[in-house]
Amino acid sequence: MVVNDINTLAEDLENQELAAPSGIASPEVYGQLLAIYLYQNDLCNAKFLWKRIPASVKTAAPELGQIWAVGHHLWKSDFPATYQALNAVKWSENVAEIMQNVQIVVRSRAVDLMSQAYSSINLQTVQAMTGLDSEVCIAACKEKGWRVETDSKIVYPVRKAAEPLSQLSSEDQLFKLTDFVSFLEN
């Protein structure tokens, strides 16, 4: 799934929601849009969408609640619960690929946060933040060039090379700062 395609799909789904007869879109539209918002880490729009989905649609399509459970855990920055919610469900064909990509981007963001925030971290914490079991986690850490001491179970992340400074909008800077601070608080 290409990011441009997902942005186009999100726009199309938003238009379908707006054009829906009687203002209520199909559960499939809501499900895909909610999943895409999670993929994009647009938790505010995900939460607002969840609140405006009619209760009757939520009841008729329990998968919507399962998608929102992932969003709820992301909102709280509870990575272990996020992975548990992602893996507890066999997603419908409608959202399976998107939810698989949600897991990939959540794991990638967690790895980036750890590499920025820690000079050393307990292996168990890395496992919780990535949703990987011990052996896979150790292999993934080594693949990233992180040093792993298996006897003490300490991981030494390698900070990513600094990217050339680009001018970020105030909103982007605030979002990054908020994301980083909320990660450190957990």
Automatic annotation (TrEMBL):
Record localization: Cytoplasm; Nucleus
InterPro entries cross-referenced by the UniProt entry: COP9_CSN8 (IPR033205), CSN8_PSD8_EIF3K (IPR033464)
Alphabetical list of Gene3D superfamilies matching this protein: 1.25.40.990
Statement: the UniProt record of this protein carries the keyword Nucleus: yes
Coiled coil ranges: none
A GO-annotated cellular component: COP9 signalosome
Pfam family, one: CSN8_PSD8_EIF3K
Residue intervals passing through the bilayer: none
GO biological process per UniProt: COP9 signalosome assembly; protein deneddylation
Protein name (record): CSN8/PSMD8/EIF3K domain-containing protein
